[in-house]
Input
Amino acid sequence: MQPICPECFARYEGPIPRGETRLRCRHCGAPFLVPVEILRAQLEQAEASGDPEALEQAAHALRKTYREQRRALRRTYRQALERLRRRRRQQREALRPDDGDRIRTPLARRLLRSVLGVYFVTMLLVNLGLMAYQYVHARSQILDELRSTERIFGKGLDEALWNLDTSGVAAIARGMLEDPAIIGVRITDDRGQEVSALGWVPGEGEQPRWRAPDDADAPRSVSPTDAPRKLIRYRFELHHDDGTEHTLVGAVEVLSSESMVLARVTGGWLLLGLNALLVGLALALTLRWAVRRQLDRPLGVLTNAVSQLNMDNLDMLEVELPGAERNELRVLADAFNAMVRNLVEEKRRLLEVSRALERFVPRQLLDRLAAEGLASLEPGQVVRGRMTVLWATLLLASPEASADPETEIERACTLAERFHQAIERQGGFVYALTERSLMVLFDHEDEETEALCALYAGIDMSKSVAETPETRLAIGIDRGDVVLGTVGTRGRIDATAIGPVVACARRLMEAARESGGGLLVTEAVASRTAELAAVRLEAIELGSVLADASLATTVYAVELPAATAAAAGDRCDRDVGARASEPA
Output
């Protein structure tokens, strides 16, 4: 078994040295690995021979080949992975929206703002309600504590005032002031005279003033701004019961302030605010992550794909959404991918139909119609231009050869296939085709290049027919204004070309056919090809063939020796390329 070069597919001839893992092709010089099957066969032969050196060489070569194959597989895998990454980058670049197509306020962002706005408004209202409830509750607690002083200190103050014990009244007042909720105490007798006043007590104009506990007459050195703004009061009367009657002995006014209420609820309010802030922040981050992952990115991919959709990049618009769950966005992505696949298939079918239509309506005519702004193919559409027309017909040596219709069709196919390469190489296209004749048009920007191409195409066609002894070719070439158009009905459209140039070229073809074949050109073509050394032009008289005044012109017969036919055909490419490279 001999290995085959993977580059030129040539079989390696000669013996394969033992222990070698690489060979060089003797045809293309490319190196390639020895197949593993050959190395295994060498290993089995070495084992059968019992030669330890040969066995070691064969085993080493097999191990080396395995390692190189693994490296080659890893290299191939990395290259395939890099191609996949490059394709994905190209897809992302294709799906990236332009600045003009970028959505200023995405739907996901608006949804996130709406949800967070509703949350923060709701949380604000709830927290304000809780704060109001805490404030009212704390105020009612302070009022309850102020009322409790009547139950706790009322009996002692009753006895002290009944016994006119002012020091006892002051001591009880100082004890009442020890309560954190009480900022001031004012005790009066039954005539309304102040007996004791400690802390913050109302002064003139209800403005609180400070009365020190140790000396009621010495005011405390405090700033007026330290005074409580709003006092909370609770007043109760003291009645002494001696067993026979209740006697009013005085009244007690216990004071607190709104600042004491705020001091109790401030901590709760801070906790409420901090809790709302942390919960809102966590909710915002969670919603942002969820919305971006589950809604924003998939919608962005879909909208970008839709905005970039056109017939030129359908192969790059496959939408891949993250995640495996099937949801509404997945359904949209699958539907979009199915639509793109259908568009790709329809585009392929349209290209196939377009290529099939080119067999009936030349593509050059369609390009001309499109350049004139005629997007659809309808009957009666025409375009004008200066072109070179070539008419050719096939002459048979024996008339009996044309008796069979199947032979005629086969001969027409052979004619078209034989002339196709020569015509296409010179930039022409077949515009009309019958069983023995065809009309070729040449449409180039440069007039001299166009005439040269038509002449060389006729030379190549004549040369190809000359290889068959029983056939000859009659060709006529003219250049001038041609009208291309479409004729037919909406159900069947065909292409046609009319004008004096088309009729003149056909008359020249008929004249060449009557003379037994040849290549005839008019003055419009000969004047642009006279400098060719390999082509000899001879003016001839055609008599009544071109008797029509509109077709009157000098006609030249082209004589091309067989030895120079190949050189003339090769020179066409050089002449056309040189003329195309000249500046306009």
Residues 107-162 form the longest helix (56 residues). The first strand starts at residue 22 and ends at 24. The chain has twelve helices and 15 strands. The two ends are 62 Å apart (CA to CA).
